[in-house]
Amino acid sequence: MEQLASPVVTACDSDILRSVFTKSVIEDNIPEDQWRDYAAKMVRDFAGQAMVEPELLDRIMQK
């Protein structure tokens, strides 16, 4: 059986995710203590993976 390649989040993808994250945090007034969980869910939904790299979350959540 052929194994599918893992989805990759590119630099462009991470910029888009960061932009969406920032807009969501502002518009939905998401408390800072919930940012990491929210960002992780965004990445999981986007990439379809259960595991999210901590460095990617840090990049998305940069102030």
Itemize the secondary structure elements and their pairings.
Blueprint: H1 11-27, H2 35-47, H3 54-60
Structural account:
This protein is an all-alpha fold and 63 residues long. It has a domain of 44 residues. The chain is 59% helix and 0% strand. It has three helices and no strands. The longest helix has 17 residues. The chain starts with 10 loop residues before the first helix and ends with a helix. The N terminus is likely disordered.
Give short descriptive properties of this protein.
mainly alpha, 3 helices, 63 residues
Radius of gyration: 13 Å
Characterize the main sheet: none
How large a portion of the residues is in β-strands, by DSSP E?
Answer: under 5%
Question: Which bin fits the share of residues in helices?
Answer: 55-70%
Tell how many strands the DSSP assignment holds. Answer: 0
Question: Which regions are unreliable across 5 or more consecutive residues at pLDDT < 50?
Answer: 1-5
Q: What is the arithmetic mean of pLDDT?
A: 89
Tell me, briefly, the overall form: globular
Element-level helix/strand string: HHH
> Helical element count?
3
N-to-C terminal Cα separation, in Å? 44 Å
Structural class: mainly alpha
In short:
This protein is mainly α and 63 residues long. Helix content is 59%, strand content 0%.
